[in-house]
Amino acid sequence: MVRLLPPDKAEGFQMVLKVAPSDIDFLTRIIEALDGMGMVSTVDSALGLVVIWTTPDTQSDILEILDSFPRPIEILRPQQ
Fold first, then answer.
1. What is the distance between the terminal CA atoms of the chain, rounded to a whole angstrom?
2. Could you report the per-residue pLDDT of 3-51, keeping only the tens digit for each?
3. Does residue 41 belong to any structural domain of this protein?
4. What pTM was estimated for this model as a whole?
5. What are phi and psi of 30, to 5 degrees?
6. How far is CA 51 from CA 16, 56, 76, in A?
7. How many folded domains does the chain comprise?
8. Is residue 65 part of a domain?
9. CA-CA distance, 74 to 10, in Å (whole number)?
């Protein structure tokens, strides 16, 4: 499992999300298909917790993608 870092210790931008556990793979494939826009790591698959690592240049694009994502997503901790 992935260990989340406190915002002041994380390099880059972490977006912590909650999705249906069955949607983790779908979300991962969508983000990874966007060639370098973000990297998805599963924090807790049973709870549907994931983190997306982005850069300052890609964070707004990732937010747009999440906004139009066809399944429910809850942003628990937005990027810094």
1. 22
2. 555 656 556 688 899 999 999 999 999 999 988 889 999 999 999 999 9
3. yes
4. 0.80
5. -65, -50
6. 4, 16, 10
7. 1
8. yes
9. 21
